[in-house]
Amino acid sequence: MVLYIFRRLLQAVPTLLLVITLSFFLMRLAPGGPFDSDIQAPPEIEANLKAAYHLDQPLLTQYFLYLGNLAQGDLGPSFKYRDRSVNDLIATGFPVSARLGLWAMALALLVGVPLGIWAAMRHNRATDHAVMGVALAGIAVPNFVVAPVLALLFSVTLGWLPAGGWGDGQWRYILLPVVALAIPQVAYIARLMRGSMIETMNSPHIRTARAKGLSAIEVVLHHALRPALAPLLSYLGPAMVGIVTGSVVIEQIFGLPGIGRYFVQAALSRDYTLVMGVVVFYGVLIVLFNLLVDLLYGLLNPQIRYED
């Protein structure tokens, strides 16, 4: 297994390099620059700023300088937050985004998996259609609509919860963002779990278990649940990364100091290094979570072996 993990990580290097290269050059093609503002700086000051950040160098030279620093684990200084590095900003924002994302995914799994199983056990009945209809609505309504509605209802109208802010991570402040993040994931997970469970329940080994006189609960828990979770794992890899680092809209709406909010502000201000840092960090997480999903397949299916 150790050799398999090493080989997978080695294979990810060209993919990450391609993502870094495309992001680096495409970002430079966008109009504007990190030092453009409504107040025009004197030419000599702007020239000094560009020289300090190597922006006066040819683009190819900037690219190789960035790769050299990246190889040493240095994501560079931020252009917008002049007194902080990109490493510091990601280290500050990621725990906030990770906490929101992990709680949201836990809530989505806690609600979505039982809903999907329940709908599958009542296939083509009114309950099944009702659950899938609600799930489809959860997918169709974007979270930038759900979040303001939740804030309007529970903060402005009822006054039960704060409308924004972090508040040292107290549950009163993170409850609404977590729910807003979890709602689309509940819908996706419920639909995936329903389809997978229906297919698994029609398998020969399930018919054999039923023929032995096992109850429906025993069949689901001991024979159908493990193979039915396999397709869900494939979804959870990128979904986990997306919900942990991609809660851009939610963090903006609720004013949370997460990595998604930093990414939006960096994109608007052409903070090249911060945008690149988030992209690289996101790519690494994708690789690691997909590898973790592949390893978890071995727990769900003992027939899978990762031979060295």
Assembly annotation = single chain
Low-confidence stretches: none
Radius of gyration computed on alpha carbons = 24 Å
Q: How much helical structure, as a percent, in the residues?
A: over 70%
Judged by helices, strands and strand pairing, the structural class is: mainly alpha
Q: H/E element string?
A: HHHHHHHHHHHH
The proportion of strand residues reads: under 5%
> CATH architecture of the domain at 94-267 and 292-300, please?
Orthogonal Bundle
In the CATH hierarchy, what is the class of the domain at 94-267 and 292-300? Mainly Alpha
Mean pLDDT across every amino acid position: 81
CATH topology of the domain at 94-267 and 292-300: MetI-like fold
Overview of the structural elements:
This protein is mainly alpha-helical. It has a domain at 94-267 and 292-300: MetI-like (MetI-like fold, Orthogonal Bundle). Helix content is 75%, strand content 0%. It has helices at residues 2-29, 43-52, 59-71, 86-121, 126-140, 143-157, 171-201, 204-211, 216-245, 248-254, 259-268, 272-300. Helix 7 packs across helix 9, helix 8 (204-211) runs antiparallel to helix 9 and helix 11 (259-268) runs antiparallel to helix 12. The radius of gyration is 24 Å and the shape is globular. The model has no long low-confidence stretch (mean pLDDT 81).
Which key phrases capture this entry?
single chain, MetI-like fold, mainly alpha, globular, 308 residues
Short recap of the structure:
With 308 residues, the protein is mostly helical. It has helices at residues 2-29, 43-52, 59-71, 86-121, 126-140, 143-157, 171-201, 204-211, 216-245, 248-254, 259-268, 272-300.
